[in-house]
Amino acid sequence: MESSGQANSPTEPRTWPARSGYVALAMFSALGAALSIFSSCSTVTRTVVEPLHIEGATFAGNHSCTDCHAAITRKFHASPHARVFVRSPGEATENSCESCHGPASKHVQTGGQGRDKFIINPGKAADACFRCHVGTHTEFRLPHHHPVIEGQMNCVQCHDPHGHDIMKPAGGLAMAQLNQSCAPCHRDQARPFVFEHEAMREGCIVCHNPHGAVHDKLLVQRDANLCLKCHAQTQGAPGSLFIGKIDHAAFVRQGTCWSAGCHSAVHGSNINPKLQY
Ligand code: HEC
Ligand code: HEC
Ligand code: HEC
Ligand code: HEC
Ligand code: HEC
Ligand code: HEC
Ligand code: HEC
Questions:
Q1: Which residues are paired to 85 by β-bridges?
Q2: Measured torsion, CA atoms of residues 111, 116, 119, 125, in degrees rounded to the nearest 10
Q3: What residues are in contact with ligand 3 under a 6 Å CB criterion?
Q4: pLDDT tens digits, residue range 252-275?
Q5: Residue closest to 210 by CA, chosen among 260, 245, 159
Q6: Ligand nearest to the CA of 60
């Protein structure tokens, strides 16, 4: 069964807001064909955001990081962010590292000194990421969200900023690809069950928005709508309401699918194939 794909669709707005507008950020389309677009060098979209600022520093370029951060530089070329760079006249333009870490000339000149002064670490504060990912910022401000803005979590617990797969947490465990970033903190939901709910194979994000949501428990839709996007509801005789082979007309009046003592084991059950406890 295929999901509606809804959980996968929310993406960044493609036009980012112009803030001060004095530096253009050139990048390649984030759409599926990003790589081929890159190799054919045909399509370049340009948007403007205010780049990170470090007092008195200029962009030194990726090459200047190689000597001291060889391991990161080596794997970075496969990251989606390797194609992002800050257009800054007269300064190095192969500067994708600094699009997240800020202009690094002073960090380089001082041989890596000035930790909190000359270089920005977005693992400590997500502001550097929000600079470009405005839509993500909005999601983290929704009523229900992972506590990133509160400083209790950060982006790198779910995203690997340097590797080829940004959806994979750095040093992540070898779990099922889609759910692996959630497992370390939510073992109860991510563990195997005797009676699994096949929905889990499409990943947690088929039901949860990982950043934030208007609905309780980060759910992508509320109430029965969440379940009915995969489980068709059909009308039989007047007054009946079939979900699967069972007439649910009397049940749905008592609450939503997982409340009212019904399919409360939404993530899987060890005792009941109908996902009840
Ligand atoms: C200078 C702007 C900029 C900054 C800063 C930035 N990003 Fe991005 N990010 C982009 C662009 C542009 C893309 C789309 C790249 C592509 O698909 O080719 C992207 C894509 C992504 C994606 C999705 C990749 C995919 O395959 O869909 C994730 C996740 C992401 N960024 C996370 C982060 C995190 C986490 C940070 C901070 C540590 C961050 N970004 C900082 C510009 C930025
Ligand atoms: C001359 C060597 C040298 C060069 C060149 C260099 N760094 Fe560093 N960098 C260091 C050292 C040493 C540290 C560790 C500092 C510490 O532990 O206090 C460091 C730390 C960092 C950190 C972590 C800061 C933190 O707060 O945790 C980042 C990010 C960073 N460098 C990025 C870069 C980028 C991007 C470049 C290229 C533009 C670069 N560095 C070039 C030596 C260098
Ligand atoms: C998408 C934004 C982004 C880009 C682009 C990026 N980094 Fe980072 N970098 C981060 C984040 C986030 C952390 C914090 C990681 C953590 O805490 O685990 C980090 C941490 C670091 C550190 C210190 C921690 C460590 O693992 O040693 C260094 C050094 C560093 N980056 C260098 C670089 C270099 C060099 C490049 C380019 C080749 C680069 N970064 C590109 C986001 C980025
Ligand atoms: C709790 C884990 C988690 C945290 C924390 C997290 N993300 Fe994500 N993020 C995900 C997952 C999972 C996806 C894939 C969503 C999808 O495919 O629908 C994603 C997707 C993205 C995307 C791709 C566009 C989109 O929204 O689908 C961007 C950009 C992004 N994250 C940026 C960030 C930034 C920036 C931070 C930190 C401020 C962050 N994320 C923190 C789990 C997380
Ligand atoms: C680094 C640890 C960590 C990771 C990784 C993580 N979470 Fe969370 N999660 C939390 C914390 C902390 C909370 C907030 C708990 C609270 O507020 O009581 C939370 C809350 C939630 C909630 C809401 C729970 C409630 O009671 O309202 C859901 C749903 C959730 N996470 C799903 C996910 C999914 C899906 C992923 C993977 C994309 C994920 N989490 C990855 C730490 C994590
Ligand atoms: C079929 C949809 C669906 C999928 C897939 C799904 N969840 Fe949930 N999840 C729910 C619903 C519905 C709730 C609310 C249950 C409740 O309130 O009793 C929930 C609640 C949660 C909670 C809060 C638990 C609590 O006791 O408050 C966490 C944490 C969570 N899910 C994590 C995950 C993780 C991690 C994954 C992937 C491994 C995942 N979910 C996959 C539907 C789903
Ligand atoms: C991404 C699609 C998807 C979503 C969303 C989803 N399910 Fe499922 N569910 C499945 C699939 C696939 C099966 C196994 C095939 C079947 O029995 O229809 C299944 C099976 C079940 C079963 C066992 C049915 C049986 O007869 O054995 C129950 C109960 C169930 N789901 C309840 C729920 C509830 C409650 C929700 C909402 C919280 C939900 N599902 C959301 C895809 C989904």
A1: 26
A2: 150
A3: 62, 65, 69, 72-73, 76, 81, 96-97, 99-101, 121-123, 156, 161-162, 170
A4: 888 889 987 789 999 999 999 999
A5: 159
A6: 2
